[in-house]
Design a protein that fits this description.
Elements lengths: L2 H16 L6 H8 L3 H7 L3 H26 L5 H15 L1 H9 L7 H26 L7 H20 L7 H18 L7 H7 L9 H14 L4 H14 L5 H11 L6 H11 L3
Helix pairs in contact: 1-2, 1-6, 4-5, 4-7, 4-14, 5-8, 5-9, 7-8, 8-9, 11-12, 11-14, 12-13, 13-14
Protein name: TetR/AcrR family transcriptional regulator
Keywords: DNA-binding
Amino acid sequence: MAKKQLIMEKALELFAKQGFEATSVQQITDHCGISKGAFYLSFKSKDELIVALIDHFMRQFTADIDFVVSDKNEEDLLYNFYYTAFQSFSKHSDFAKLLMKEPAQSFNEELFSKLHNYNKSLEKVILSMIERLYGDLSKDLKYDLSFCIKGFMSTYSELYLLYKTPIDMDLLSQSLVEKTNLLAKNMTITFIPDELIEIIDQPLIEDTSSEKIVEVIEKNIEDMEDSIEKESLILLKQELLEPALHPAIVKGLLSNIQHHPHCKWAAYLLRKHFEIK
């Protein structure tokens, strides 16, 4: 296991028990069995480590949801959306629990900005899904419906995060599909005002330029051993710098990296850049 990954996993164990503020760098290094010097070779500070953990969780979650919405046909789109969301909550339950219980004052401006950007990314994915599913039916109510869907995700995720009873993910997803369809077909009153829609529709405050994507890819390449995913990343980086490949080849390279845990965010950014559906 790479040292950076070890630090993130061991730090998460301590954060889950004690919270961000109560956990010191010394406690993290003791728990990892490494020196402070080794810690600071990977992270400049505890705040940078926390940002890395939030990035990891939110990038995985956002990329998984976006891939499902982009890849699935309308027939099972909503079911797969909910199933993937709750599967991700379950997979990353320790960190999700930590975010739920951590007091807001623990988050600095950078963390708030990142969480805001990820939330806006998720909103855009949900709005895209609503438009695909309901067409003109959703024209005036899609923003209200998107908030309802996010509410379902947040509320029902508590079943995974606060209770230890087994959850039938298939039944839960089917139930929420039914509820969402009922809302979409029967809502008549718009609540979200035009002024708020203008704010929601503003572009993300995030650098998604080719240079930034290359930076993300290079970091992934550096952290990976030789594999088909690594070779695919190298080719995709070259395509960003000097476009030459047929779109079908680019799509194939993206499919090679899509499910690798270290490459999901790179795949998400590349799909947006190359406009791959």
